[in-house]
Design goal:
Blueprint: E1 2-8, H1 9-19, H2 21-27, H3 30-36, E2 37-38, E3 41-42, H4 44-61, E4 74-78, E5 84-88, H5 90-96, E6 100-107, E7 111-119
Antiparallel strand pairs: 1-7, 2-3, 4-5, 6-7
Length: about 120
């Protein structure tokens, strides 16, 4: 199963400016917030990519963000080489019978995109 999501970076930037940590804590966990923070500023491109990743995963699973999959069930981290990876809550892995997840995130000036492939 494959999911893709495209996000306007300006849209995410306006949400971060308007709601600050309230927005970030709704979509990211503390480890992810550490990954998107540069000194006292936030890397809006990375936040946008993480948001797109979580949406793309929900599309790959066919459930959307909601009852069966919440933002907090998904943890994005980087491996030793800096490649983004997804770690899921064990209940989610079991519910959707997930064996493997592949992820690609990209962004340019205006948009962030994420593609997620889930294997059962």
């Amino acid at each position: 199963m494959i999911g893709i999501d495209l996000v306007s970076i300006k849209r995410i930037e306006s949400l971060v400016k308007k709601y600050d940590m309230t927005f970030l804590k709704k979509i990211l966990n503390n480890d992810e917030i550490s990954l998107v923070k540069n000194n006292n500023n936030f890397n809006i491109n990375r936040i946008s990519g993480f948001f797109a990743t979580k949406e793309a995963l929900s599309k790959a699973l066919g459930c959307g963000i909601g009852k069966d999959l919440r933002f907090c069930d998904i943890c994005i981290y980087k491996d030793d080489k800096g490649k983004p990876k997804i770690k899921l809550d064990s209940a989610v892995i079991k519910r959707f019978n997930i064996k493997n997840i592949d992820l690609s995130i990209s962004h340019d000036k205006d948009y962030a995109v994420a593609v997620v492939q889930v294997c059962n």
